[in-house]
Write a structure and sequence with these properties.
56 residues; alpha+beta; 1 helix; 3 strands; elongated
Length: 56
């Protein structure tokens, strides 16, 4: 799910928020496994992405 697009005309960058859904595991073997999971892009949490986007 992508939402909240913003176009920076001066830098020709498109910013948007995306929530990449994946099933959240119910249990983790360690705190470090949990920390690795929450920093992945498909954890269901919203993150900000950017890409070069030129409008002519």
């Amino acid at each position: 799910m992508e939402y909240c697009p913003y176009y920076d005309e001066g830098n020709q960058r498109l910013y948007f928020t995306s929530r990449r859904n994946d099933l959240l595991p119910k249990e983790f073997d360690s705190v470090s496994d949990f920390q690795k999971y929450i920093h992945q892009s498909n954890n269901g949490l919203s993150k900000i992405y950017t890409t070069s986007f030129k409008i002519k």
